[in-house]
Write a structure and sequence with these properties.
By secondary structure, this protein is α+β, with helices and mostly antiparallel strands. The chain has a single domain, classed as Alpha-Beta Complex (endopeptidase fold (from Nostoc punctiforme)). The chain contains four helices and eight strands; from the N terminus they run H-H-E-E-H-H-E-E-E-E-E-E. Strands 3-8-4-5-6-7 form a six-stranded antiparallel beta sheet. Strands 1-2 form a two-stranded antiparallel ribbon. Strand 5 and strand 6 form a beta hairpin. Helix 1 packs across helix 2. It starts with a helix and ends with a strand.
Length: about 160
């Protein structure tokens, strides 16, 4: 299956500055960035993975995979997913495309923020929640490490 990058970016544009009422807002629970990025990914792929413990899905705040709203869990899911839903590979930032995911580490050790690439040329622009923005320059962040998760496709569930 193909990943529709345009749909993912269109979703980000629609919801970056507000909240989709179909999803819980995790701002008061540590941040909403990965939840928002997962929503964007879902808009671009249309397939969730309901595998216990290792899947990627959202039904409610109390019935969701850790990968839906957790930075490290999303990384693990995207880079190891062999069953259903989106899958990705780490790549250099220079290879970013709209619809890809960037995760940032502010301390150089722990990755704690997820962003969706909305434009890659002439510079990388992103969308995110927690510090709500759309079209923000990646260069405006003060981070130690960044990793690009290039979405390679979608596996049927």
């Amino acid at each position: 299956m193909t990943y529709d990058r345009e749909k993912a970016v269109a979703y980000a544009k629609l919801w970056a500055q507000r909240r989709n009422p179909a999803y819980y807002d995790f701002n008061a629970d540590g941040g909403d960035c990965t939840n928002f990025v997962s929503q964007c990914l879902y808009a671009g792929c249309g397939t969730m993975n309901y595998t216990n413990d290792t899947g990627w899905y959202y039904s409610s705040p109390d019935n969701r995979a850790a990968a839906w709203s957790g930075v490290e869990f999303l990384h693990r899911f995207l880079t190891t997913n062999k069953v259903g839903g989106p899958y990705a590979a780490e790549a250099p930032l220079e290879q970013a495309q709209p619809g890809d995911v960037i995760q940032l580490s502010f301390d150089g050790y722990v990755f704690g923020h997820s962003l969706l690439v909305v434009s890659a040329a002439p510079e990388i622009l992103v969308a995110t929640h927690s510090d709500d923005s759309f079209g923000r320059s990646l260069r405006s962040y003060h981070y130690q490490l960044a990793r690009l998760l290039h979405i390679e496709g979608v596996r049927a569930g």
